[in-house]
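Thread: Modeling a multi-component assembly for a lab meeting

Hi all, long-time lurker, first post. My supervisor asked me to bring a structural picture of a complex we are working on to next week's group meeting, and I have zero experience with this. I have the sequence lines for every component (511 residues in total). Could someone generate the structure of the whole assembly? Inputs are pasted exactly as I received them:
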Amino acid sequence: MRFKRTKALLVAAGLTLAVAACGEAGTGGSESVDVEVTENAAENFEDGTRMKELAESGEITIGVKYDQPGIGFKSAASDTPEGIDPEMGKILAASLGIAPEDITWKETISDNREPFLQSGEVDLVIASYSITDERRQIVGQAGPYYVTGQQLLVKKGSDIKSVDDIKGQEVCSVTGSTSLDNVEAKGANPRGFDTYSECRDQVLNGTVEAMTTDGAILLGYAAEDPEELEVVGEPFSEERYGVGYSKDYPEMCQWISDTLQESYDNGKWAEAFEATLGKSGVETPEPPALDPCKA
Amino acid sequence: MDDVFSNFDLVLKAFALTIELLVVSALTSLVLGTLLAAFRVGPISVLAKAGTLYVNLVRNTPLLMIFIFVFIAMPELELNIENFFVKGCLALTVYTSAFVCEAIRSGINSVSLGQAEASRAVGFTFVQSMRHVILPQALRAVVPPLASVLIALAKNTSVAAAFGLLEATARMRYFTNNNADARPEIFITFAIGYIIIVEVLSAGAIGLERRWKVAR
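Re: Modeling a multi-component assembly
Sure thing. I ran the full set together rather than chain by chain. Output:
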């Protein structure tokens, strides 16, 4: 009896170790751009600005998406999100003298981006956050740091070749998104799902004909499954991703714009693109021109 | 807010879908639920066990899981139903019928045993005694809990928003995404829609209760 118990204990210990090892294997290995963290960054900002406060505290909270491969994605096994949005966040934080490991990431979904900024839950929102006039009424948006457009993801060999073919077809995207609204206006049956991956599964199992959202996100999914999926048609909208900040701190706009411009000039932006969205095979585009900040 | 009022037809269309989901699922759940309750109190032990198993299985599963099963797992198992509306009603019916069954069973149990014995004594079969003696009395007792089940169903239709059905909640999310500056107002507008639906259900239940009140 005693022997049996010892054996069981050994097996249990072995299992625990194995499980722990699995956990280890998942982390690390993610490509990321090395950022140069500015030393004594607080001295670069005037007193009373939000940037100075953040630089002095050495902490920043950034809201990103967790479910968009290439843009902002966090796998169950990793501790930090990956994608062009988090990379932009690291570049911005570095100019405040905050190292990547000192950034607090917070998941934001489309619905809570403005409330999070207004309540100060996050300092910045970099979450495939298209710049629109409505949003600029209540929060600040600097940028754009990336311009993309809505496209269609279909099963290889589908009859849908461009946006003109979607009339009367089932097309899915995320519930409540502008993308879904656009295809509804073009005569498709809009099918909203909670996440992009659920929508992708519906395309794979043939329940819906196509998935639609920003081309950048679709390319990420097509790259994951190149045998079965492809992106078709020209972009039929323009989405300009910006960095969201609270209207209480209008001084942040100029700092964001300057830092983005610097990353365009010193090649960090291109590096960030190649390490994330570029992996699906698209060429690195020219960085987009920044909107001027209103004084 | 202007966006909501100038597109009010979209709001009405969305609530129409919510009501369609509610009515169709309510009817199918009432039928299936009553059948299950009859199984559970009936004399055939296989059916009684099957009814108990169904209720225990479904009632202990979150509605969202049932939706995920119908919309995501079933197509993988090649059991796909093409129509989204049918799939939505199926998920809601599977879930709600377990609660309907239990509400009706509680009503049946509230009818004293003497009633069933008396109807057997006069030679009624099980179906006859259910139909003419037990259920008419049970249904009276069952109106308040059934109303609660249906009110829950009315609100549960909102889960379909995340499964390709453009009902009220999905439409609300569309409006809040486009009009970040008017979120509270949009929430309130859609909440009023749900309140109206629930109030109609409650009023119906109160009406039935009055009509079926036993003269004591």
